[in-house]
Amino acid sequence: MQSFLARADQAELKVCLKINALSRSGVIRQGFRIVSRLGDGVLWYSSMVVFALLGGVDGTKAMLHVGLTSLVGVYLYSYLKNRLVRPRPYVSHGQIVCAIAPLDQYSFPSGHTLHAVLFTTMFAAYEPTTLWLFLPFTLLVALSRIVLGLHYPSDVLVGGILGVLLAALSLAGVGTMPVELAADWTSVLELWSP
Fold first, then answer.
1. Average pLDDT over the chain, rounded to whole?
2. CB atoms near residue 7 (< 10 Å)
Protein backbone atom coordinates (compact mmCIF):
# COMPACT_ATOMS: atom_id res chain seq x y z
CA MET A 1 0.00 0.00 0.00
CA GLN A 2 2.86 2.39 0.77
CA SER A 3 4.27 2.12 -2.75
CA PHE A 4 0.80 2.73 -4.19
CA LEU A 5 0.41 5.88 -2.06
CA ALA A 6 3.90 7.07 -3.04
CA ARG A 7 2.98 6.72 -6.73
CA ALA A 8 -0.32 8.51 -6.05
CA ASP A 9 1.61 11.35 -4.37
CA GLN A 10 3.59 11.92 -7.55
CA ALA A 11 0.52 11.64 -9.78
CA GLU A 12 -1.36 14.22 -7.69
CA LEU A 13 1.52 16.64 -7.18
CA LYS A 14 0.71 18.84 -10.17
CA VAL A 15 -2.92 19.30 -9.06
CA CYS A 16 -1.80 19.93 -5.47
CA LEU A 17 0.61 22.62 -6.59
CA LYS A 18 -2.03 24.42 -8.66
CA ILE A 19 -4.63 24.38 -5.88
CA ASN A 20 -2.10 25.14 -3.14
CA ALA A 21 -0.93 28.20 -5.13
CA LEU A 22 -4.23 29.84 -4.15
CA SER A 23 -2.86 30.10 -0.60
CA ARG A 24 -0.37 32.75 -1.79
CA SER A 25 -3.21 35.26 -1.70
CA GLY A 26 -3.55 36.50 1.87
CA VAL A 27 -7.33 36.89 1.57
CA ILE A 28 -7.83 33.39 0.16
CA ARG A 29 -5.43 31.85 2.67
CA GLN A 30 -7.17 33.53 5.61
CA GLY A 31 -10.62 32.61 4.29
CA PHE A 32 -9.70 28.95 4.00
CA ARG A 33 -8.04 29.01 7.43
CA ILE A 34 -11.35 30.18 8.90
CA VAL A 35 -13.24 27.47 6.99
CA SER A 36 -10.75 24.89 8.21
CA ARG A 37 -11.05 25.97 11.86
CA LEU A 38 -14.85 25.95 11.67
CA GLY A 39 -14.57 22.49 10.10
CA ASP A 40 -12.51 21.32 13.10
CA GLY A 41 -15.86 20.84 14.80
CA VAL A 42 -17.02 24.31 15.82
CA LEU A 43 -19.77 24.54 13.20
CA TRP A 44 -20.80 20.89 13.50
CA TYR A 45 -21.08 20.73 17.27
CA SER A 46 -22.79 24.10 17.61
CA SER A 47 -25.25 23.02 14.90
CA MET A 48 -25.94 19.85 16.88
CA VAL A 49 -26.81 21.97 19.93
CA VAL A 50 -29.17 24.13 17.84
CA PHE A 51 -30.81 21.02 16.34
CA ALA A 52 -31.29 19.54 19.81
CA LEU A 53 -32.69 22.78 21.27
CA LEU A 54 -35.10 23.41 18.40
CA GLY A 55 -36.12 19.77 17.98
CA GLY A 56 -36.95 18.92 21.58
CA VAL A 57 -36.72 15.26 22.52
CA ASP A 58 -36.68 14.11 18.89
CA GLY A 59 -33.97 16.63 18.03
CA THR A 60 -31.89 15.52 21.00
CA LYS A 61 -32.21 11.86 19.98
CA ALA A 62 -31.26 12.72 16.42
CA MET A 63 -28.20 14.65 17.53
CA LEU A 64 -27.12 11.86 19.88
CA HIS A 65 -27.28 9.62 16.82
CA VAL A 66 -25.22 12.09 14.78
CA GLY A 67 -22.71 12.51 17.63
CA LEU A 68 -22.20 8.77 18.10
CA THR A 69 -21.76 8.32 14.36
CA SER A 70 -19.17 11.11 14.30
CA LEU A 71 -17.23 9.31 17.06
CA VAL A 72 -17.11 6.23 14.84
CA GLY A 73 -15.80 8.54 12.10
CA VAL A 74 -12.99 9.76 14.39
CA TYR A 75 -12.00 6.18 15.15
CA LEU A 76 -12.16 5.19 11.47
CA TYR A 77 -10.02 7.99 10.07
CA SER A 78 -7.54 7.79 12.98
CA TYR A 79 -7.16 4.05 12.47
CA LEU A 80 -6.61 4.44 8.72
CA LYS A 81 -4.17 7.34 9.08
CA ASN A 82 -2.05 5.46 11.62
CA ARG A 83 -2.06 2.29 9.52
CA LEU A 84 -1.39 3.86 6.13
CA VAL A 85 0.97 6.65 7.36
CA ARG A 86 0.81 8.77 4.21
CA PRO A 87 2.88 11.91 4.79
CA ARG A 88 1.12 15.21 4.21
CA PRO A 89 1.87 16.89 0.85
CA TYR A 90 3.92 19.71 2.36
CA VAL A 91 6.11 17.12 4.14
CA SER A 92 6.82 15.14 0.97
CA HIS A 93 7.08 18.07 -1.42
CA GLY A 94 8.93 21.18 -0.28
CA GLN A 95 7.27 23.34 -2.92
CA ILE A 96 3.85 22.88 -1.29
CA VAL A 97 3.15 25.53 1.33
CA CYS A 98 1.58 24.51 4.62
CA ALA A 99 -0.71 27.43 5.40
CA ILE A 100 -2.08 26.18 8.74
CA ALA A 101 -0.87 23.80 11.44
CA PRO A 102 -2.27 20.28 11.01
CA LEU A 103 -4.20 18.59 13.80
CA ASP A 104 -2.39 15.29 13.32
CA GLN A 105 0.58 13.84 11.47
CA TYR A 106 -0.77 11.93 8.48
CA SER A 107 -2.73 12.72 5.38
CA PHE A 108 -4.89 9.77 4.25
CA PRO A 109 -7.88 10.06 4.52
CA SER A 110 -9.05 13.59 5.25
CA GLY A 111 -10.83 13.57 8.60
CA HIS A 112 -12.17 17.09 8.04
CA THR A 113 -13.81 16.01 4.79
CA LEU A 114 -15.10 12.76 6.27
CA HIS A 115 -16.82 14.68 9.06
CA ALA A 116 -18.09 17.51 6.85
CA VAL A 117 -19.77 15.01 4.53
CA LEU A 118 -21.01 12.85 7.42
CA PHE A 119 -22.58 15.77 9.31
CA THR A 120 -24.07 17.33 6.17
CA THR A 121 -25.58 14.01 5.05
CA MET A 122 -27.02 13.23 8.48
CA PHE A 123 -28.31 16.76 9.09
CA ALA A 124 -29.99 16.68 5.66
CA ALA A 125 -31.57 13.30 6.43
CA TYR A 126 -33.11 14.71 9.61
CA GLU A 127 -33.87 18.17 8.22
CA PRO A 128 -33.54 18.45 4.40
CA THR A 129 -33.75 22.25 4.41
CA THR A 130 -30.30 22.42 6.04
CA LEU A 131 -28.63 21.15 2.89
CA TRP A 132 -28.53 24.63 1.30
CA LEU A 133 -26.40 25.85 4.22
CA PHE A 134 -24.16 22.87 4.89
CA LEU A 135 -23.42 21.66 1.34
CA PRO A 136 -21.51 24.79 0.23
CA PHE A 137 -19.61 24.82 3.52
CA THR A 138 -18.71 21.14 3.12
CA LEU A 139 -17.34 21.79 -0.37
CA LEU A 140 -15.24 24.64 1.02
CA VAL A 141 -13.91 22.40 3.81
CA ALA A 142 -12.89 19.78 1.24
CA LEU A 143 -11.18 22.40 -0.94
CA SER A 144 -9.48 23.99 2.09
CA ARG A 145 -7.60 20.78 2.80
CA ILE A 146 -5.77 21.05 -0.53
CA VAL A 147 -5.46 24.85 -0.64
CA LEU A 148 -3.80 24.83 2.79
CA GLY A 149 -1.31 22.13 1.72
CA LEU A 150 -2.56 19.50 4.17
CA HIS A 151 -4.05 16.90 1.82
CA TYR A 152 -3.92 15.39 -1.62
CA PRO A 153 -7.11 15.31 -3.70
CA SER A 154 -7.39 11.54 -3.14
CA ASP A 155 -7.32 12.10 0.65
CA VAL A 156 -10.29 14.43 0.28
CA LEU A 157 -12.13 12.13 -2.14
CA VAL A 158 -11.74 9.07 0.08
CA GLY A 159 -12.66 11.10 3.18
CA GLY A 160 -15.86 12.21 1.45
CA ILE A 161 -16.74 8.69 0.33
CA LEU A 162 -16.15 7.33 3.84
CA GLY A 163 -18.25 10.12 5.33
CA VAL A 164 -21.25 9.50 3.10
CA LEU A 165 -21.01 5.72 3.51
CA LEU A 166 -20.73 5.94 7.28
CA ALA A 167 -23.67 8.36 7.46
CA ALA A 168 -25.79 6.20 5.16
CA LEU A 169 -25.02 3.01 7.09
CA SER A 170 -25.79 4.71 10.39
CA LEU A 171 -29.03 6.19 9.10
CA ALA A 172 -30.07 2.86 7.61
CA GLY A 173 -29.25 1.15 10.90
CA VAL A 174 -31.81 3.22 12.79
CA GLY A 175 -34.33 3.34 9.95
CA THR A 176 -34.06 7.11 9.56
CA MET A 177 -33.37 7.27 5.88
CA PRO A 178 -35.91 6.33 3.23
CA VAL A 179 -36.10 2.65 2.33
CA GLU A 180 -35.01 3.32 -1.24
CA LEU A 181 -31.85 5.01 0.05
CA ALA A 182 -30.86 1.87 1.92
CA ALA A 183 -31.53 -0.27 -1.13
CA ASP A 184 -30.19 2.11 -3.78
CA TRP A 185 -26.84 3.77 -2.96
CA THR A 186 -27.22 6.21 -5.85
CA SER A 187 -29.91 7.93 -3.80
CA VAL A 188 -27.17 9.01 -1.40
CA LEU A 189 -25.77 11.13 -4.21
CA GLU A 190 -29.14 12.83 -4.65
CA LEU A 191 -28.55 14.49 -1.29
CA TRP A 192 -25.49 16.07 -2.89
CA SER A 193 -27.00 17.25 -6.16
CA PRO A 194 -28.61 20.67 -6.56
1. 83
2. 10
